[in-house]
């Protein structure tokens, strides 16, 4: 694959295996009774050994690939992630950060809604105050109009009385 991509490979690719029997079988070319069930065509890995592939035995607890292929205890999982060069808990930390941000956004939205409700309440109070002021002004205008009409009538009566008095005085 690397040759097809134009990248040469100087050293064989190291394959870590935690199965000692599989490594020994791959390295030992002789066939015996325990391996006669394996067809010869599957022994192709022998042709690749030391040229393109190098098999190395690792202990099971040092096999980083197990985190992808097996169900492990949590401590073994985190150890495998460390062996694979992954940081412990970063995904959880990012998820917690995202959840915290979502919670902060929900709280900001609740606060905006509370502010909108307070503004609606202030608007209703202003409308009620304006309505009371208009009613008060209309009432004062009616009082003035009624009081002014009564005063006009009184003035007209007084004027008529004054005219009558003047006429009487003139007649005398």
Span between N and C termini? Answer: 143 Å
User: How many H/I helical runs?
Assistant: 5
Oligomer: single chain
Query: Order of strands in the sheet with the most strands?
Result: 1-2
Strand content: 5-15%
Strand tally, please?
2
Shape: rod-shaped
| Amount of helix | 55-70%
Radius of gyration: 51 Å
What structural category arises from helix and sheet content? mainly alpha
Question: What is the average of the pLDDT values?
Answer: 78
- The stretches of 5 or more residues where confidence is low (pLDDT under 50) are none
Task: Provide the succession of SSEs.
Answer: EHHEHHH
Main sheet summary: 2 strands, parallel
Explain this structure to me?
Strands 1-2 form a two-stranded parallel ribbon. It contains 5 helices and 2 strands, in the order E-H-H-E-H-H-H. The protein is rod-shaped. It starts with 12 loop residues before the first strand and ends with a helix. The longest helix has 82 residues. Helix content is 63%, strand content 6%. By secondary structure, the protein is mainly alpha-helical.
């Amino acid at each position: 694959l690397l040759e097809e991509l134009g990248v040469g490979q100087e050293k064989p690719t190291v394959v870590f295996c935690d199965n000692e029997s599989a490594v020994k079988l791959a390295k030992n070319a002789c066939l015996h009774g325990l391996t006669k069930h394996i067809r010869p065509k599957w022994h192709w890995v022998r042709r690749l050994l030391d040229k393109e592939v190098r098999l190395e035995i690792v202990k099971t607890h040092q096999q980083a690939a197990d985190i992808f292929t097996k169900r492990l205890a949590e401590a073994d999982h985190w150890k495998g992630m460390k062996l694979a060069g992954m940081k412990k808990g970063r995904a959880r930390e990012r998820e917690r950060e995202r959840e915290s941000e979502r919670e902060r956004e929900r709280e900001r939205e609740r606060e905006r809604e509370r502010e909108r409700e307070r503004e609606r309440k202030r608007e209703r109070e202003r409308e009620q105050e304006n309505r009371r002021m208009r009613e008060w002004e209309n009432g004062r205008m009616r009082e003035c109009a009624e009081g002014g009409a009564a005063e006009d009538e009184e003035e007209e009566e007084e004027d008529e009385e004054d005219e009558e008095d003047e006429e009487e005085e003139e007649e005398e």
